[in-house]
Amino acid sequence: xxxxxxxxxxxxxxxxxxxxxxxxxxxxxxxxxxxxxxxxxxxxxxxxxxxxxxxxxxxxxxxxxxxxxxxxxxxxxxxxxxxxxxxxxxxxxxxxxxxxxxxxxxxxxxxxxxxxxxx
Length: 119
Known about the structure:
Elements: H1 10-19, H2 24-33, E1 45-51, E2 55-61, H3 74-91, E3 95-103, E4 111-118
Antiparallel strand pairs: 1-2, 2-4, 3-4
Helix pairs in contact: 1-2
């Protein structure tokens, strides 16, 4: 099955979500614009783990910022702050974006769990 939302441009996806009366499409926007923070990494994967009425949880994999020493983890705090600003500025929605769990072991299985919650 083809996910038609990916065939639209980011502007169309953003417009459709902002015109929706439901909050979930607005929270799902994160999945579409996150790569703009980390645009040099084409193999970055962002998966929705869980959705409820006002919160969405994502699993982010293959980021070079998740190297074993953890010295670049501040990047995810910056990305969360930028995300909060994007939602407030463009959708007039106050959200809390936070990194809930970090798995940055020595092997290739490194990922971070981020949440986005409407306040």
